[in-house]
Write a structure and sequence with these properties.
Two copies of one chain form a homodimer.
Chain A (H helix, E strand, L loop, with lengths): L11 H14 L11 H8 L3 H13 L3 E4 L3 E4 L4 H24 L3 H20 L2 H18 L3 H20 L6 H16 L3 H13 L5 H7 L6
Antiparallel strand pairs in A: 1-2
Chain A binds a DNA duplex through helix 2 and helix 3.
Chain lengths: 224, 224
Amino acid sequence: MIVDARQSGESARDYAYRILKENIISTELKPGSLVSENETAAKLGLSRTPVREAIYDLAKVSIIETIPQKGSFVALIDPKMVEEARFLRKVLDVAVIRLACQEIDPEILKALEDNIDLQEFYLSKGNAEKIYELDNEFHRLIYVAAHKEIICELKSNMLIHFDRVRSLSVETVRDMKIVADHSGMLAAIKEHDEEKAVALVEKHLSRYHFDEELIRGQFPDYFK
Amino acid sequence: MIVDARQSGESARDYAYRILKENIISTELKPGSLVSENETAAKLGLSRTPVREAIYDLAKVSIIETIPQKGSFVALIDPKMVEEARFLRKVLDVAVIRLACQEIDPEILKALEDNIDLQEFYLSKGNAEKIYELDNEFHRLIYVAAHKEIICELKSNMLIHFDRVRSLSVETVRDMKIVADHSGMLAAIKEHDEEKAVALVEKHLSRYHFDEELIRGQFPDYFK
DNA sequence: CTAGTAATACTTGTCTACAAGTTCATTAAA
DNA sequence: TTTAATGAACTTGTAGACAAGTATTACTAG
């Protein structure tokens, strides 16, 4: 497990959650592997309590399965679960961008514009990691524009299933297209053009195709 | 706080969660009131740990607000939050019933039919509480039909905001209409008629109108 | 050598104790 | 009387111990 430092102001629980989530998405913690509360607590320099809470959070969206008196295990990749995550994201993203098209706060609009400027900057630098972060933030801002922050949070938790298979996929160079998609969405929001925005969201999501057979061929043990 | 007995096979954590949720929805635990971990644990005959975990779960959907070293408080009614819950329910219910219309397992269909028979039975008996339970179960079954169980769970958690204001509303006699709505939805699913089903879902949800001014007039202290 | 059993080393579930911070009431001083 | 300080009684955050259950391993009996 890769453990980076605890950020200032981060509670023990949040710290444990962040580290576990990162390691699950990257499959540094392999699907099916045991995540012991004691062992994790020791590695993070915490007691069991906050670690236990973080594990429980992850279990709530079935990315960890806890079996009483046996252990907590990173869930095997379950195509059904990946589909639930994909479905949730699509349904909510579409519904939320419709709201954003209807009315948007100038401040949020500014934040979206700044975000895209940064995306283009890092695209020219070829910094994929930064684009990944900005991508997440861009979509979150649309939820903020629609005043649906809690829903965004719920979605994020579920998205772990999706992000994990994404991280296993061969990363083709598609950052350019992603940034262009975002640009188009922002334009649609400015023009209050719901249909255009929705079409773009759907196109955008289609770029993250889950090629189950391919990944299953490479990592058969990771699957349910 | 009204505490009924712990069910067999129910973990301490689940028990605490269930009791707290019921008391929050019924406003037996008043908006703004303190929910002390120690006090709750004592009342339920548990230790702090499982109670703490239950409180944390509720805090995740902002129905409880925990302030470190100060306390955990039942959230005041926040119309924004009620709206987020309503929005989530509508968007998901619509998306999910579309899937159910496309394809439905005969077993689930049977369960839906049985459920409606029971609804009609209890309607004739005038048993509102049973209808409430069957109502929840009916909608859950549609999620099961669409293979979206986890999403259903996430929605349920958020719905607490919605259910709480619903429980504060004067209960007009509308059970009849609700049961009829369900009947219509089932028919639409059988006929694979998506548009009809969606129209019914939207009509159905419109019956749960949140009359903010009315409730605010009656319980001004409960609001944010 | 094999089969069964007992010990052991794990796991999570729960409980209790302590640490750190907030609030509020009481008390003492001006 | 008013005001400021102090301490008691709360709160949650974290830590660690014990209980109960499981799986493995080593050992003993046949």
